[in-house]
User: Which sequence fits this backbone?
């Protein structure tokens, strides 16, 4: 039976999610393929699906059936080696010390008398690379990303075309030319495929590992070319809460710092329903951890204002002065809300927003006061 999931259906049709979950769980072997011309959003969604499923199911992402750039990302990740030190004894303390020659790791056992050489091991390991298509077993579920027709899908399996006819096809795309050829079709024109996959996994499993969350955040952020609804912001907030980070795949320190602060702001976001108002706060610890400055606060406000359709937003943060002061910056299109803030707090206001100083010395009290103010009629 063929069925199509629309983006607007994600909240309503939990039976669809159950069908998708059953299709995945009943498959003995799953193969994932993406369009050879996949953009960052498609590649991120493909990799996220692979890492979200690989620890529970037999999932294959064959090199010769996927874009070369996608496989490069995959190999960069799984090709990393790590040192694993194992000690069977109970440990009372773990520490490390840097030196000119490298780093020394110190493990202090609870009972030194029980320590013996056979209880200790050290090895260098790396994750296995995905198996090639030629070594794949017979598969019974294909998850196809951004492949618009069944004929196009057949081209990916020319060596064994019959295999395509003998398995379930999950067709995921954001192209309105997609022919809805799968037994399962998850199609939404011009939307972020990474966001679709995040919603799918959230509704099916309720959680996701940090690696898959990181890829999905990368995909969603790469697709923020138009203003998004708060639905997108909620998904980003959920992914950050699952261990993902907005600076995934960014190496420039300044970019990582700013995106990390944006991520923390979204993670702390609260919604005040009466005025359709969104409030977040940053502690001194949040700022100090990122070594952030007021310029980074401006970056956060700019991104939230320009990328998400939030009508009213305020950010509170702890200043580094002594005694601690709580500052705020906001924007809103509601004149009555702007006037409430202007009439309560001294600051610098211009047009639809401003920056001000609260009357409190801790974030919790400042948040409570703002919330009470906005609730007043």
Assistant:
């Amino acid at each position: 039976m063929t069925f199509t999931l629309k983006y607007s259906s994600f909240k309503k049709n939990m039976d669809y999610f159950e069908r998708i979950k059953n299709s995945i769980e009943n498959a003995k072997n799953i193969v994932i393929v993406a369009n050879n011309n996949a953009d960052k959003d498609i590649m991120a969604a493909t990799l996220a699906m692979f890492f979200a499923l690989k620890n529970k199911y037999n999932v294959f992402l064959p090199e010769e059936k996927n874009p070369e750039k996608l496989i490069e990302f995959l190999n960069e990740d799984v090709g990393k080696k790590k040192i694993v030190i194992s000690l069977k004894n109970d440990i009372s303390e773990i520490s490390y010390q840097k030196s000119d020659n490298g780093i020394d790791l110190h493990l202090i056992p609870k009972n030194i008398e029980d320590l013996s050489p056979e209880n200790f091991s050290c090895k260098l390991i790396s994750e296995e690379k995905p198996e090639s298509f030629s070594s794949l077993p017979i598969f019974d579920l294909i998850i196809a990303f951004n492949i618009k027709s069944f004929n196009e899908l057949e081209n990916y399996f020319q060596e064994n075309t019959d295999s395509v006819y003998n398995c379930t096809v999950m067709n995921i795309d954001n192209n309105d030319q997609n022919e809805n050829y799968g037994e399962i079709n998850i199609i939404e024109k011009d939307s972020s495929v990474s966001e679709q996959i995040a919603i799918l996994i959230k509704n099916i499993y309720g959680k996701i590992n940090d690696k898959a969350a990181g890829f999905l955040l990368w995909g969603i952020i790469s697709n923020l070319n138009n203003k998004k609804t708060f639905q997108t912001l909620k998904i980003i907030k959920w992914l950050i809460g699952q261990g993902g980070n907005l600076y995934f795949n960014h190496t420039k320190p300044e970019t990582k710092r700013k995106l990390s602060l944006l991520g923390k702001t979204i993670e702390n976001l609260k919604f005040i329903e009466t005025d359709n108002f969104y409030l977040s706060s940053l502690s001194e610890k949040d700022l100090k951890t990122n070594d952030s400055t007021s310029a980074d606060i401006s970056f956060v406000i700019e991104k939230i204002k320009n990328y998400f359709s939030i009508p009213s937003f305020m950010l509170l943060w702890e200043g580094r002065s002594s005694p601690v002061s709580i500052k705020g910056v906001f924007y809103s299109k509601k004149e009555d809300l702007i006037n409430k803030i202007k009439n309560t707090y001294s600051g610098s206001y211009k047009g639809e927003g401003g920056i001000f100083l609260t009357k409190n010395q801790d974030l919790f009290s400042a948040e409570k006061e703002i919330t009470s103010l906005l609730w007043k009629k």
Remarks:
- The chain has three domains: 3-78+130-191, 81-126, 250-375.
